């Protein structure tokens, strides 16, 4: 009987030792889980900050309208905003400001009503420097032109579209012919 009791005591000691080791391993796992959850939360925030896309059209009214011509280059303000994820496009100024360093894609589409001496020429500018243009000219009827570019931007870089002197652009808020859009392709 004493032998059985001794064996049971030894077994209890061994089980207590195993239990202690398992409790320590569980604490390590809980710590790892907390650490992993913190990393996931941080990654979710980073991904949230990396969502940047906008699409805006020149007019926010349904009345067909020509904008321009002006005697100087004029920044176009695309007032009707379809999408502005990340709030990087300012519809009061017409300026896109890069919220983070990355590679972005931009497109401009321009439409005009043909009239002798009034082309549609609009340029995309980055921090005040010309990047690409749209241009078309014909004597009558409607015509369109477009261009696009992929750019590496630093946080705070600005982009906007300028209508060249003595040119005009057409839009109709019902059909949205003339637009400026862009999105983050990937962050750097």
Describe the structure in your own words.
By secondary structure, the protein is of the alpha+beta class. The protein is built from one helix and 13 strands. It has one helix at residues 2-49; strands at 53-57, 65-67, 74-75, 80-85, 89-90, 95-97, 102-113, 120-126, 129-136, 142-153, 158-163, 169-171, 179-187. The strands form three sheets. Strands 3, 5, 6, 8, 9 and 11 form a six-stranded antiparallel sheet that branches. Strands 4-1-13-7-10 form a five-stranded antiparallel sheet, with no helix packed on it. Strand 8 (120-126) and strand 9 form a beta hairpin. The relative contact order is 0.22.
Q: Total number of helical segments?
A: 1
Low-confidence stretches: none
Rounded to the nearest angstrom, the radius of gyration is 31 Å
Helical residue percent band: 25-40%
Separation of termini?
Answer: 74 Å
Per DSSP E runs of 2 or more residues, the count of β-strands stands at 13
Characteristic key phrases:
188 residues; alpha+beta; rod-shaped; 5-stranded antiparallel beta sheet; 1 helix
Write the layout of secondary structure elements.
Blueprint: H1 2-49, E1 53-57, E2 65-67, E3 74-75, E4 80-85, E5 89-90, E6 95-97, E7 102-113, E8 120-126, E9 129-136, E10 142-153, E11 158-163, E12 169-171, E13 179-187
Antiparallel strand pairs: 1-4, 1-13, 2-12, 3-11, 5-6, 6-11, 7-10, 7-13, 8-9, 8-11
């Amino acid at each position: 009987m004493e032998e059985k009791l001794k064996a049971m005591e030894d077994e209890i000691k061994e089980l207590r030792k195993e239990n202690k080791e398992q409790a320590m391993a569980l604490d390590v796992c809980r710590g790892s889980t907390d650490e992993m959850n913190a990393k996931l939360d941080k990654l979710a925030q980073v991904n949230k900050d990396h969502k940047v896309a906008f699409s805006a059209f020149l007019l926010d009214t349904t009345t067909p309208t020509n904008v321009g011509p002006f005697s100087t280059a004029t920044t176009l303000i695309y007032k009707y905003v379809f999408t502005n994820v990340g709030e990087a496009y300012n519809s009061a100024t017409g300026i896109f400001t890069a919220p983070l360093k990355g590679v972005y894609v931009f497109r401009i589409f321009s439409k005009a009503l043909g009239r002798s001496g009034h082309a549609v020429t609009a340029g995309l500018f980055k921090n005040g420097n010309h990047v690409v243009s749209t241009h078309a000219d014909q004597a009558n009827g409607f015509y369109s032109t477009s261009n696009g570019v992929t750019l590496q931007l630093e946080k705070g870089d600005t982009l906007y579209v300028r209508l060249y002197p003595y040119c005009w652009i057409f839009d109709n808020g019902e059909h949205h012919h003339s637009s400026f859009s862009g999105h983050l392709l990937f962050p750097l």
